[in-house]
Design goal:
alpha/beta; TIM Barrel; 12 strands; 9-stranded mixed beta sheet; 2 domains; globular
């Protein structure tokens, strides 16, 4: 962690910067935190300015532009935050932002307004206030630890926090959102796993972006977690020029499966300030799901989600496979594009309201 690259002068001798990257770092000031671990730097092709991992880690001047629909807090978390570091949007779930510190700073981070500035450290008094809020609300049964990255905490601090949460009777599930296994795999030590095992039932949401992150060091870190009995789900942000190719996404999803991580969410990129160059059309995500469904194991097909602006919550999207209806048959499109019939008689009372048969050339 101490050897992270935090400036252009530190990064330049190891990664020749383009003129655009240098300008972005010069003009950004404190707006765009830079943090790249030596491990992540080793994954980047220094001769390729369009390297997908490089695009997610090294600033570009495109980040300095703001589209009219972009917001610093696109999900409206601050409007659902009853006290610093706690977001309570859903009735039975609390998002507990335990730190603002990350091992790396992703250029598309939905909490770029918070991370890396040291304004929300691992303060025991702040944690206690959040814990008191959770203790006083029995409806909260699911607590997601995020930030920042909770695994940047010391074993001792993390152990204290997990024990405090596990002592709350109505908290059934504790989750940790992290990118550490893929960007700082050395952090996943046997001692850390012993701390985590004491907090079961504990789940991990592992942030994965590109199949090239799944190198042997990351695979060993994920194996150590899985062998510790920690179920892991994968979360991926759809990013233009990084992973918006169906074959790249298929390789990532299958790579996660091989490492005992269940692909769970494929997120449309949030409308964060300065992210327009990463945003894909929604159709790109639907096209990727179609390329996965039926062409690989269902275990490797994530849910495609849009997190509605302003705190509207996560909304799942999927390709349209219902073509229409022909009397008592439902017309369905399969993964090969063929139309098939499925007997599905409507109740007599509903037959007059049935959608008419749809002509199809498929």
């Amino acid at each position: 962690m101490r050897h992270r690259f935090r400036s252009a002068s530190a990064l330049g001798p190891f990664l020749p910067l383009t003129a655009d990257e240098r300008e972005a770092l010069d003009r950004a000031g404190d707006r765009l935190s830079l943090g790249i671990t030596p491990h992540v730097l080793s994954l980047i092709d220094p001769d390729d300015p369009a390297d997908p991992i490089r695009r997610t880690m090294v600033p570009q001047t495109a980040e300095l532009a703001t589209a009219p629909w972009e917001r610093d807090d696109p999900l409206g978390e601050e409007g659902h935050s009853p006290l610093p570091g706690l977001v309570h949007t859903y009735p039975d779930k609390a998002l507990f932002l335990v730190t603002d510190f990350c091992a790396v700073y992703c250029r598309y981070c939905t909490r770029a307004r918070l991370v890396g500035d040291g304004g929300m450290g691992a303060d025991r008094r702040r944690w206690e206030a959040c814990l008191d809020y959770i203790r006083a609300r029995p409806a909260i049964r699911d607590v997601l630890l995020s930030g920042g990255d909770p695994l940047t905490l010391s074993d001792e601090r993390l152990d204290w926090l997990l024990k405090a949460l596990r002592a709350i009777p109505h908290v059934d599930l504790i989750r940790i959102g992290t990118k550490i296994p893929l960007v700082l795999p050395q952090r996943i030590t046997p001692a850390l796993v012993r701390v985590l095992r004491r907090a079961h039932p504990l789940w991990f949401s592992v942030h994965a972006t590109h199949p090239r992150e799944l190198v042997p060091e990351a695979a060993r870190a994920l194996a150590r977690l899985a062998d510790g009995g920690i179920p892991m789900c994968g979360q991926t942000v759809l990013l233009q020029g990084v992973n918006d190719d169906p074959e790249v996404m298929k390789a990532l999803m299958l790579g996660l499966i091989r490492n005992r991580v269940k692909p769970y969410y494929l997120h449309q990129c949030d409308l964060i300030t300065g992210s327009a160059h990463f945003k894909t059309p929604v159709e790109a995500g639907l096209r990727i799901l179609e390329a996965l469904h039926g062409h690989t194991t269902g275990y490797a097909v994530p849910h495609f989600m849009i997190d509605a602006p302003g705190g509207g919550g996560k909304i799942p999207l999927s390709p349209e496979y219902v073509v229409g209806r022909d009397r008592d048959d439902l017309l369905l499109r399969n993964y090969r594009g063929e139309t098939t019939r499925y007997p599905d008689p409507l109740p007599v009372a509903e037959r007059g309201r049935a959608r008419p048969a749809i002509e199809t050339s498929r």
